[in-house]
Every structure is written in structure tokens, then in C-alpha cells.
Write a structure and sequence with these properties.
Shape: globular
CATH topology: Spore Coat Polysaccharide Biosynthesis Protein SpsA, Chain A
CATH superfamily: Spore Coat Polysaccharide Biosynthesis Protein SpsA, Chain A
Number of domains: 1
Distance between the termini: 44 Å
Helix content: 25-40%
Largest sheet: 9 strands, mixed
Structural class: alpha/beta
Radius of gyration: 18 Å
Number of helices: 10
Strand content: 15-25%
Order of helices and strands: EHEHEHEEHHEHHEEHHEH
CATH architecture: Alpha-Beta Complex
Length: 280
């Protein structure tokens, strides 16, 4: 039987986990297992999760003493999910942030075309913020050299980062990338937005878990790199619908610390993406 297992990370925002659980409970995936990996939250948030375990019989929580990072945290949940009795070769793992709301027909949407699940390791769903902003397809082909140059400047100094953010807010109507405007076009894409992925049995034929090159940020690129190493790309499926609060966890991180995480991840990214090479 085809089934799904949800795997989320939680970091000092257990109220969002509760909202996600209620969303699942109201959908056609209401009986499917949910694994939440807590990445070293404060005691008050951990206690909220313990109460949720009492309320939701399908919930398992893994309590980490420290923050492992995003993909490393998900990997702990993925390992647990693959050891559940309900896990089968046709199981799809829905992995990502905990600040998500799922469509009432979510499971039906996933299994509407099982040939795609057999063919692609990772499916990217239609992710829309509560204000209607589309977040997929995140990157259809590649990022322009101009934008890559701006990324470099952004990561040279925290002051420059703030200036670029303010400028982007003022000019977003004509400087935003246009990839997300193709939100209704089903297609192969270079990168899917990192808030949620569907990992199929094909993924686990090729890999043991998500790449952990960075603690936080640039996960989309490193997952794309992992897929390309085996000749695959993300597949964007607009009929699988998710709503996203956005930045529920990263919004709790102080601005400068978040920029430092991004700077470190960008440095790792630049080892592989050489913008000024002939191949780019």
C-alpha cells in the first residue's frame, strides 16, 4: 500500500508544529506517521512537544540536546521513519520545516501519478506563502552572473548585506527573479525551495540521506548537486499544494548570526559554483 511519512524539524517554535499536525489531521493523510526532530529547543518548547505527543497518536518526537542543523536534523528523522513498520518501498517521505499547512487532499495529490514517484528521487511541491507569494519553482535553470555577483557582495560584510536587503525591498517589483511566475508549469527544475521536499523510494536507492555540507542555508543547491551526481533533477509538481508561514525558525535567529551562517554556506557553495569560468 502506498503511504507517506512526515518528517519535520522543530526549533523553539512548537506552536507551528501543532498547526502542522492539525493541518495533517484535517487532511486525507490524517493517519500517516509524523516524526518531529527537535533541534535543542528551550525547555518550554520541549514541554509543548511532550503535550503534543499525548494529543496526537501518530506523532513521534526525537529530542536532540543540541541543534544539528536543518538537513542533519531531518536525517535523524528520516532514519527513524525508515525503521517504522509502515515504511515500504512505495513510501514517500514528506520532509521539511514545521511551519507548513497541507491541502485537504494532500495524499491524493501525491499519488495522483505514481509513475513520477518511480522516476524521480525528489519531487518539489507547490509552496505558497500565506500572502499568496509563490516559492516554487525556486530555480528553473541557473542564477544569473549579475545576481551571483550581488551574492558575493552580500557576504563580504554584514553592513553590505543590510544595504542590499533594503535596496531589494525597494526594487523588488523589477529585480525579483521570475522563476516562481511559472508556478503552474509542471517541469524538471534545477532547485526546489527548501521548505519541503518529497523523497521517493528512488531517492533511497541512490542516497542514504540529505547532504549536510552546511549547517543552514544553501540546502537547495547541495541537494541539487547530490541529485546531479546521479544524473537527476528535481521535478516540480504544481498540483501538490502546501502553504508556508515562512521563516518560523530562521526568523528566531539574530540577524547577524543568520548572516554568518549564510556567509559560511556561501563559501562552501563557491567551491563548486565558479561564476566567471567558461563553463558557467
Amino acid at each position: 500500500m502506498s503511504n507517506i511519512i512526515f518528517v519535520f524539524t522543530n526549533f523553539n517554535n512548537s506552536d507551528f508544529t501543532e498547526k502542522a499536525l492539525k493541518s495533517i489531521q484535517s487532511s486525507d493523510a490524517c493517519d500517516e506517521p509524523v516524526i518531529v526532530v527537535d533541534n535543542g529547543s528551550k525547555e518550554i518548547e520541549v514541554n509543548k512537544l511532550k503535550e503534543l505527543e499525548k494529543q496526537f497518536s501518530n506523532l513521534t518526537v526525537i529530542y536532540n540536546r543540541e541543534n544539528l542543523g536543518y538537513f542533519a536534523g531531518l536525517n535523524a528523522g528520516i532514519k527513524e521513519a525508515r525503521e517504522l513498520p509502515s515504511y515500504t518501498p512505495k513510501t514517500v517521505l514528506v520532509v521539511g520545516n514545521n511551519d507548513l499547512l497541507f491541502d485537504k487532499a494532500f495524499k491524493q495529490q501525491i499519488f495522483a501519478d505514481e509513475t513520477l514517484l518511480e522516476r524521480y528521487p525528489v519531487i518539489s511541491p507547490n509552496i505558497r506563502m500565506l500572502d499568496g507569494t509563490q516559492q516554487n519553482p525556486h530555480v528553473i535553470e541557473k542564477i544569473s552572473k549579475v545576481r551571483e555577483f550581488i551574492y558575493d557582495i552580500y557576504h563580504t560584510h554584514y553592513l553590505f548585506a543590510g544595504m542590499i536587503v533594503k535596496l531589494a525591498q525597494l526594487t523588488h517589483s523589477f529585480t525579483d527573479r521570475k522563476d516562481e511566475e511559472q508556478f503552474d508549469v509542471e517541469q524538471e527544475i534545477y532547485q526546489g525551495y527548501g521548505a519541503c521536499y518529497l523523497l521517493t523510494a528512488k531517492y533511497f536507492e541512490l542516497f542514504d540521506g540529505l547532504p549536510t555540507d552546511t549547517f543552514l542555508m544553501y540546502e537547495e543547491f547541495f541537494l541539487a548537486k547530490q541529485l546531479r551526481s546521479k544524473g537527476f533533477q528535481f521535478y516540480y509538481r504544481p498540483t501538490i499544494k502546501i502553504q508556508h508561514y515562512c521563516h518560523a525558525s530562521t526568523g528566531l535567529i539574530p540577524g547577524k548570526l543568520k548572516w554568518q551562517y549564510s556567509k559560511k554556506a556561501h563559501k562552501e557553495y563557491r567551491k563548486y559554483v565558479k561564476v566567471w569560468s567558461k563553463e558557467y
